[in-house]
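Lecture notes, part 5. Sequence design as translation. It can be helpful to think of inverse folding as translation between two languages: the language of shapes and the language of residues. The source text, in structure tokens, appears below.
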């Protein structure tokens, strides 16, 4: 039987589902995913591993899934594209706190939590922070712009080079390739991996 805290947390997830389902988002566990043309938008509720069933702490992660990028990564070779990708499989990954105020933000759920107030707060963040963030991403070109935007966290330089290559932005992929070549100039194995991708995108 679930604890009172778990039931409250589930209630927040259900409230999100009621708001997101009409927009086309699918639900799986504590995750929501909307498939767009050439990419997808992901929302993930992450529980702290250091808390108990009676004292839950959670935050919200937001990401973008780019199928062409995912299948290009060496470790995904031969694997089918996931129908419902996880947050870890996304690029442009951000925590809600980064979108709000650049501070890592978590919320507690326990027996003293006012569920109505906490649910209202989360739905307000959905309407005023998360969905407006996603509203900018209506096309694959919008995603390309976010990948290029500086400073922008949520995508390591190596992945950024590949993502830009897959998005057809070879000019900026070249910039990232040049940076990586310099950074890993003494690591022949890593340079060989970079060069294999560089050949695919005709980088010099």
């Amino acid at each position: 039987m679930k604890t009172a805290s778990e039931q409250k947390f589930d209630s927040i997830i259900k409230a999100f589902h009621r708001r997101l389902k009409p927009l086309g988002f699918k639900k799986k566990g504590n995750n929501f995913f909307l498939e767009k043309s050439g990419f997808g938008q992901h929302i993930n509720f992450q529980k702290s591993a250091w808390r108990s069933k009676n004292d839950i702490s959670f935050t919200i992660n937001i990401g973008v899934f780019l199928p062409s990028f995912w299948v290009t990564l060496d470790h995904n070779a031969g694997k089918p594209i996931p129908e419902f990708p996880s947050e870890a499989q996304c690029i442009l990954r951000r925590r809600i706190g980064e979108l709000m105020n650049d501070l890592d933000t978590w919320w507690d759920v326990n027996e003293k939590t006012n569920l109505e107030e906490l649910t209202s707060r989360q739905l307000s963040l959905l309407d005023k922070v998360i969905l407006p963030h996603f509203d900018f991403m209506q096309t694959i070109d919008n995603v390309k712009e976010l990948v290029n935007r500086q400073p922008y966290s949520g995508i390591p330089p190596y992945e950024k080079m590949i993502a830009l290559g897959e998005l057809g932005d070879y000019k900026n992929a070249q910039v990232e390739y040049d940076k990586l070549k310099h950074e890993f100039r003494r690591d022949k194995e890593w340079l060989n991996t970079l060069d294999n991708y560089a050949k695919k995108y005709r980088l010099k």
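The translated text above is only one of many valid answers, since several sequences can fold into similar shapes. The two ends are 60 Å apart (CA to CA).
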